Amino acid sequence: MTDDSTEMLATLRCRLSQAPLWPFALALYARPGIEAACLRLQDDAGVDVCELLWRCWLLHHGAIPGPDGEAGLVEVRRWQRGVTRPLRRLRRELKAAAAESEGVARLRETLKRAELQAEREALARLEAVAMTRPLRPRDTGDPAPQELLSNALQLQKKAHLSTLNRLVSRLDPPWGPR
User: Fold this and answer.
1) What residues does 64 pair with on adjacent strands?
2) What is the pTM for the complete model shown?
3) Which terminus, N or C, of the chain has the lesser number of Cβ atoms within 10 Å?
4) What is the C-alpha to C-alpha distance for residues 134 and 68, in angstroms, rounded to an integer?
5) Which of helix, strand or coil describes residue 157?
6) 12 near 59, Cβ under 8 Å?
7) Which residues of 97-119 are buried (b: 16+ CB within 10 A; e: fewer)?
8) Are the C-beta atoms of 56 and 26 separated by less than 8 Å?
């Protein structure tokens, strides 16, 4: 790595630390159409919404994870499989019973809070990956954001790509190289 690229990486990480992932994720998820697109990709394509939001955050700041950054996702994915997904599955399974029982409704709300806390932990771990693993600035030779995201998330079906395109179209103006 040259001194120039080391300086660019330091500047990039400074920018990321000044705009943490959690507030970015909350704001993005709250935008019209984003929640529905994220849940559709989660339920129909198996996309991890936290990873999707993390990748959008990086792109927003003109960054792309390097190969070792991608390797850093292994532990986050393990967390999501072992903690977040089981909480989500239980919460969803209790939906019908919660309509009939106040006790089950309270339990379901507890699971909902636990699921949100697990997602917040996943986002914290993803942010740590961005701060400790190699990143690179996005440049003019890189594909468009939709293609970067579809490749990273392994989306190939036309319906999934269409949903991803709708999501990307609702983000901030297209990111150029920084």
Assistant:
1) 136
2) 0.90
3) N
4) 6
5) coil
6) no
7) ebeeeeeeeebbeebeebbeebb
8) no
